[in-house]
Amino acid sequence: MASTKSFAQAVKDRRTYYALSHESTIPDSRIQEIVKDAILHTPSAFNSQTSRAVVLLGEEHTKMWDITAEVYKQQLSEEKFNHANQRFQGFRAGYGTILFYEDTDSVREFQNKFKTYEDKFPGWSEQTNGMHQFVIWTALETEGLGVNLQHYNPLIDVRLETEYKVPPTWSLKAQMVFGKPTSGPAVQDKEFKPVEERMKVYGAK
Asked: What is the pTM of this model?
């Protein structure tokens, strides 16, 4: 059942969780629904719809982190790999991973279509991808899942393209790991910089 938590409260409650189990609090169909809704309804500049997602669940999620470990083992010294592998095994212990991509062909299409803003579309593309990540992250947490966001691209890009038949024009941006939390968030008491230094208001009544 979908959460009845308000959007504002869901935003406030969103946190990073690293301690995850290979379980989900919701059916796979609900996870797919959340990602599908985000892909359909998250805004993009000029309605360019450049963001893409690959959803890996269960054993496919496990395989993805095994691939990541294999790639990094070839790139790092034994000491550095042993340290990194502790993190990989932690992510591997989760239930699923969402790979976030941007379709560079679509970005170029809009650059050619709107020459006045040609230099802006790559930045706008990154912005919409970030919005997709935030929407999905927040939605998964309202369903009782713990989430963390990783960035092991570009070293893993080619292997994942081959394994999951990803078009070469898709550019990998992030890997979102999720699962049932086995402990609290990574940061219990989040520190905030003064909002007065980060926000200005004019004309309020």
From this structure: 0.95
